[in-house]
Every structure is written in structure tokens, then in C-alpha cells.
Amino acid sequence: QVQLQESGPGLVKPSQTLSLTCTVSGDSIGSDSYYWNWIRQPAGKGLEWIGRIYPSGSTNYNPSLKSRVTISIDTSKNQFSLKLRSVTAADTAVYYCARVPDYTSSGYVDVWGKGTPVTISS
Amino acid sequence: DIQLTQSPSSLSASVGDRVTVTCRASQSINNYLNWYQQRPGKAPQFLLFAASSLRSGVPSRFRGSGSGTDFTLTINNLQPEDFATYYCQQTYSTPITFGQGTRLEIK
């Protein structure tokens, strides 16, 4: 059974860089059958797609965050990571890592991490 | 960006009722529309894909329909575990976007 687990600091100071890692178990992150996403959700609000990475390392980002975001993948550790630079209070949210099957064009998230809350505060 | 507008934002219903949630896209997205259920404090769970295809294991009381810009999620014979927040998601083009959510509460 595939599981995704987010990890990283729960508190980040304004203007600093938020760094999170998603560890995948039960599946190879290098498989061409899936690609890997970050999605966030501010408290009491809706879901925002941050971006995705393919096993090849190819990425797509939300234009609203593109200038501050980097998503990377480490197939040797079965992990992918998120870096969000120059954070502000508006970046406070629960951050989810998520898997999307690439063998269907529907693009649905079939496996989610449990989510990790990140607060931006001094 | 493609905007998804869900209605209503919240609704109250009773066990056994039938409810319908609407998701309208700002442009045609063919059938690239998925639905998720989220319970408080939990990650969303995928229910339907391609507007009307049920994920394996999801009860048949959940039904999706629509194409183009207008989509609906209907839940028949509401069960206690169905009271949650529902989100639509479009995957027609990036950035991937979600509706703002519909909170389904027990009357």
C-alpha cells in the first residue's frame, strides 16, 4: 500500500525559505506511471495546487507561485521536495504531497499524504 | 487560469436525503473534472474522475455528471459518513484548480 509522508519545519520565519520533503513508501517514485504534486490548504479555506514533478525531473508550477517555488526529486531516496522562498503569512497552510497516475489523462490525485501544517511567523 | 465555482457553498441535509452540488468552469474543460471529499482534519479523498466515473470502492450513491462547463455531484440516500466538504478539480490545463468547496452539514 502506497503511503506518502510529509516532513519539515512547522514554523518558518517571514522572508525565509519553507522546505518540505515527501517520502514515498510502497512504490518507486521513479516509476513512469505516476507524477508527484504539492498542494496546500490555508486553514478553513480551499485547495491550491503548487506544482508537480515527473520522474524525469520535469516540472510545472502554479504561475502565482512560480517565481518562488522549486520542486525536486531524489529517486535514490524515494523522495521529492518543495522549496518556497521569501515566505509571508499568506503562505501559512497545511501542505500536502500527492500522487497522480500518469496512465490516465484524468489527472486525479489517487494518494495523498496526511498533510503537514506550516506556520509563517516571527 | 480556469476558475471553478461551486454552489452552494454550504447546505444542510438529513440522513436519507438526496443532495446536488454544482461546479461551473469559467471555460470548457471537456470532462477533465474530478471530485473529492474531505473530512475535518483529514486529507481529501478522491471520489470520481472524468466527471462521472466512480473510483473503485466508492458507494454507488455518489453520481457525477456533466461536460464542458457545467458539472454536478449528486449524493443519494445520504449516510452519516457523507457529511463533509466536497471539492471539484479541473485538470484540463495548468494551473490545476479547485472549486472553493461545498460544506455538507447535518440538518
Give a summary of the structure in a few sentences.
The complex is a heterodimer of chains A (122) and B (107). Chain A is built from no helices and eleven strands. Chain A is an all-beta fold.
Q: Could you describe the 3D structure shown?
A:
The complex is a heterodimer of chains A (122) and B (107). Chain A is an all-beta fold. Chain A has no helices and 11 strands. Chain A has strands spanning 3-7, 11-12, 18-25, 34-41, 48-53, 59-61, 69-74, 79-84, 93-101, 111-112, 116-120. In chain A, strands 2, 4, 5, 6, 9, 10 and 11 form a 7-stranded mixed sheet that branches. Chain A is globular. In chain A, 39% of the residues are buried. Chain B is an all-beta fold. Chain B contains no helices and 11 strands. Chain B has strands at 4-7, 10-13, 19-25, 33-38, 45-49, 53-54, 62-67, 70-75, 85-90, 97-98, 102-106. The chains are: A mainly beta (122), B mainly beta (107). The interface between A and B is medium-sized, with 21 and 24 residues.
Oligomer: heterodimer
Basic shape of chain A: globular
Order of helices and strands of chain B: EEEEEEEEEEE
Strand elements of chain A, count: 11
Largest interface: A-B, 21 and 24 residues
Number of helices of chain B: 0
- Uncertain regions spanning at least 5 consecutive residues of chain A: none
Structural class of chain A: mainly beta
Calculate the mean pLDDT score of chain B and round it: 97
**What's the average pLDDT of chain A?**
97
Number of strands of chain B: 11
**Helical fraction of chain B:** under 10%
In helices, the fraction of residues of chain A equals under 10%
Specify the structural class of chain B. mainly beta
Chain-wise SSE layout:
The complex is a heterodimer of chains A (122) and B (107).
Chain A: E1 3-7, E2 11-12, E3 18-25, E4 34-41, E5 48-53, E6 59-61, E7 69-74, E8 79-84, E9 93-101, E10 111-112, E11 116-120
Chain B: E1 4-7, E2 10-13, E3 19-25, E4 33-38, E5 45-49, E6 53-54, E7 62-67, E8 70-75, E9 85-90, E10 97-98, E11 102-106
Parallel strand pairs in B: 2-11
Antiparallel strand pairs in B: 1-3, 3-8, 4-5, 4-9, 5-6, 7-8, 9-10, 9-11
